[in-house]
Write a structure and sequence with these properties.
about 325 residues; mainly beta; eight-stranded antiparallel sheet; 3 helices; 25 strands; elongated
Length: about 325
């Protein structure tokens, strides 16, 4: 322990970051005793970790599981080994998906995408879509439209007929929803002609863009809108710890691969594939890893509460616990 660098960042605007030097022990320690007989500050809970299986596990079809939700952002986890039983059209939000494991055919009015692990795509507001998953799991991020990509695509959706082997147009519904697709917020549900819906691609110039992260160390920005930003982060083992404090956004992290230790002013947590954690705005933190690590980072400029059950919580900071990470 000793002096460390802290980056004070604003990510939902284009203001430059600042750096300051800190005593690491003081940065992580509880406050000095309050000398006055009135309460000057609140007690804060340690960071909480939510875990969903990273590898596919067979379960009956169920709606996506909500993890974090506000009036501006919703984060869900879903697993499938079947067709989704309806097409879905969002009234209010763009819908970003990230493929965790397995294979998923995404069928839309803008073409079809065969998703593989590590890939992102964005469904613009108002585009009907359905999924056919094979032993797969994926994340969904909803936020008010419009959202834009921040890097070039690795490929785009295509007009594919049939969209997957064995497909035949069947009796299926289309659900139109508001409130970020949250269950119970359907506006109308009606039967559709699936063949005609998918053939709409021939009348459309727009196509879905498939994005991935990069092999470069650090942040790769992927998507952005007003008050929302999403990227992927690659870390390598290194000696110097740099802390980050985001002033204008809650940060949700999802561990993709590798293991790391999250050190923060709200405790120390071990993170592995399938773990989510929320870091409130204004909290300084850093990551320590003994192997290559990759995670998703979502930033929202409004409080983004956790709605899923907590799997475990961060441990309190002690100098001994931090010193052990150096070995």
């Amino acid at each position: 322990m000793g002096t460390v660098t802290e980056v004070i960042a604003v990510v939902c605007s284009d203001q430059p970051s600042r750096t300051v030097e800190r005593d690491e022990h003081l940065l992580l320690s509880p406050p000095h005793p309050n000398p006055f007989p009135v309460k000057l500050w609140r007690d804060h809970e340690p960071l909480s970790v939510v875990h969903f299986p990273h590898a596919y596990e067979s379960v009956p079809f169920a709606p996506p599981r909500g993890i974090y939700e506000s009036a501006q952002v919703r984060v869900e986890w879903q697993t499938m080994d079947n067709r989704q039983p309806f097409y879905h059209r969002n009234c209010d939000v763009d819908e970003i998906s990230y493929q965790i494991a397995g294979e998923r055919t995404l069928m839309t009015e803008l073409g079809t995408v065969e998703h593989r692990p590590g890939e992102f795509s964005r469904l613009p507001r108002g585009v009907a879509h359905d999924n056919y998953g094979r032993r797969e799991s994926h994340l969904l991020f909803y936020t008010p439209a419009p959202v834009r990509e921040e890097r070039p695509p690795v490929r785009r959706s295509e007009a594919v007929f049939p969209p997957f082997p064995g497909w035949e147009p069947g009796n299926i519904n289309e659900a139109v929803t508001q409130c970020m697709g949250t269950p119970g917020h359907d506006i109308t549900v009606a039967p559709i002609d699936e063949q005609r819906l998918l053939e709409q691609v021939h009348a459309e110039k727009e196509r879905l863009s498939v994005l991935t992260g990069t092999d470069e160390v650090g942040m790769t920005w992927l998507y952005r809108s007003a008050g929302f930003r999403l990227g992927s982060v690659r870390l390598r083992p290194e000696g110097e710890r740099v802390y980050r404090r985001t002033l204008d956004a809650d940060e949700i992290q999802y561990q993709i691969s590798g293991r790391r230790t999250l050190v923060s002013q709200r405790g120390i947590a071990e993170l592995g594939p399938g773990d989510f954690v929320r870091i409130p705005l204004g909290i300084a933190y850093t990551s320590v890893c003994a192997e290559a690590s990759e995670h998703i980072a979502l930033f929202a400029d409004r409080e983004l509460p956790q709605i899923a059950e907590t799997t475990r919580t961060a441990e309190p900071y002690t100098p001994e616990r931090l010193a052990a990470l150096q070995h």
